[in-house]
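Could you join me in thinking about how sequence relates to backbone shape in a protein? We need material for that, and I hope you will provide a protein of your own picking. Once you have written the record down, we can walk along the chain together:

…
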Amino acid sequence: MADPVNELEHAATEHSTEVAHGEGHGYAHWYEDPSVWVDAAVALFFVLIVWKGVHKIFAKMLDDKSRAIEEELDNARTLREEASALLAKYQRDQREAELTATELLANAEAEAKTLHEESAQHIEEMVERRTRLARQKIQQMEAAALKEIQLTAADVAASAARELIAGNLKKADQDALLRDAIDGLDRQVH
């Protein structure tokens, strides 16, 4: 880096040489020329800036700004990584939820099919059982009706036989039959 003080001296020397040789604006002496004073003031300003360390203040400000930008970039990088991880987690959860939903749907369909088959089988068994019970009832009712018909026929036949016997037998024959029947019962009991 060039030293500003040396540059200022060099510029002043060149300017004074020009003035002394009659070049420039036509001033008799170099110190009468305002551009010399402007140049000197600018050079002095830069010397004071360097001497007081203003450049260090600007450098510190730039370093601080650089650190702040770096921290923001690190924070943005961290947030991006967290967002990527969160996105991956949500995508994984979505895939798992889709798999679970597919499994649940398949299980529900299989269970519905099984229940349908079981209910069809149950209905078939129930119809078969009721048919068998109905046949048994019909057989029982037929047997009861047949027995009742037989009893009624026996009663009718016995009544008819009594009437015929009573009408055809005489009183003495009836008494003899009655005694024979009582004696037969007596023998069967004892």
Remarks:
- The radius of gyration is 68 Å.
- The chain has a mean pLDDT of 83.
- The chain is about 90% helix and 0% strand.
- Residues 183 and 190 are 11 Å apart (CA to CA).
